[in-house]
Design brief:
Blueprint (H helix, E strand, L loop, with lengths): L5 H16 L7 H21 L7 H20 L13 H22 L15 H6 L7 H4 L4 H15 L3 H24 L10 H9 L4 H21 L8 H19 L5 E3 L5 E4 L2
Antiparallel strand pairs: 1-2
């Protein structure tokens, strides 16, 4: 997936279109020459940056070739002869204008066939944030306490939420909660073994043994997610609606924040990843 630079397409059209409006005569040779430089630059960039454009490619290459041939003639011709009547010169400029018109027509038609979509905003969240860095929806103090694998799951959840893949979004945010839940269990229960437990029920049972009022509040959120979402999402026949996924995202964030508050800050190691807990 690549983000489309919409202003580039606007600028490309703005630089190409004036060339298509010119006529082939002695007085328009210099205007055609001047207009050819930005048109050449944008057409070349368009074809280079968007290999998905295939139909217009040959016409674009012909336009670039015609521009270079015309520019060479102007460069090699003394200034006083640029406006001389010469029927053998007109085709050089005419070819540039004709190819520009052809390319503009074909590229407009091809752009209409591309599978381009507008990503609708989800709640109050910034779409770029959901797509690239969904972890910033958490307070910085919480971000400082979650490991990189949990960050990755939250990012994947955000992308899925943004692109209307609600069931996948739910799957990833549940994995994020599970990642924090194990660290939370190790921190507050202080077991002698560091192994992961076999189920959410096992984690919740161990947490209940603490009989701590604050932990009980966290248990209530985990129990809600377990009963209403986690167990169901593991069944392939279940699909979440966009509203269900958004609601789960909010509830799961609450669970992550409730657990992360009890965790120490993570320590940055190689390549900036947060993978070790500061003692």
């Amino acid at each position: 997936m690549e983000k489309i630079n919409l202003p580039f397409f606007y600028q490309c059209g703005a630089q190409l279109n004036p060339l298509t409006k010119l006529t082939v005569n002695v007085n328009d040779r210099i205007p055609i020459y001047m207009a050819s430089f930005p048109a050449h630059s944008y057409v070349y960039t368009l074809l280079d940056a968007f290999p998905v454009l295939t139909v217009c490619r040959s016409t674009g290459a012909e336009l670039i070739k015609a521009i270079l041939e015309m520019q060479k003639w102007v460069k090699d011709t003394p200034a006083e002869k640029l406006r001389e009547l010469d029927s053998s010169v007109d085709p050089l400029f005419g070819d540039v204008v004709d190819k520009a018109r052809q390319f503009e027509t074909i590229v407009i038609a091809e752009l209409q066939t591309l599978a381009t979509y507008h990503v609708t905003q989800k709640g109050a969240y910034s779409t770029p944030d959901l797509i690239d860095r969904a972890e910033v929806t958490l307070p910085q103090s919480i971000q400082d306490k979650i490991p990189e694998n949990v960050r990755d799951e939250i990012r994947e959840c955000g992308r899925c939420l943004a692109f209307d893949n609600p069931t996948a979004s739910g799957f990833h945010i549940i994995r994020a909660v599970e990642g924090i839940m194990h660290l939370y269990y190790l921190t507050v229960c202080k077991p002698t073994k560091q192994d992961r437990l076999e189920s959410w029920g096992a984690y919740i049972a161990e947490l209940r043994k603490l009989n701590d009022p604050i932990v009980k509040e966290t248990i209530a959120i985990l129990q809600q997610i377990k009963d209403n979402d986690r167990n169901l999402i593991m069944h392939p026949e279940l699909t979440l609606s966009p509203d269900d996924a958004f609601t789960l995202f909010e509830i799961a964030k609450g669970a992550i924040m409730a657990m992360a508050r009890s965790l120490p800050k993570m320590k940055a190691v190689s390549k900036g990843k947060m993978t070790k807990i500061i003692p």
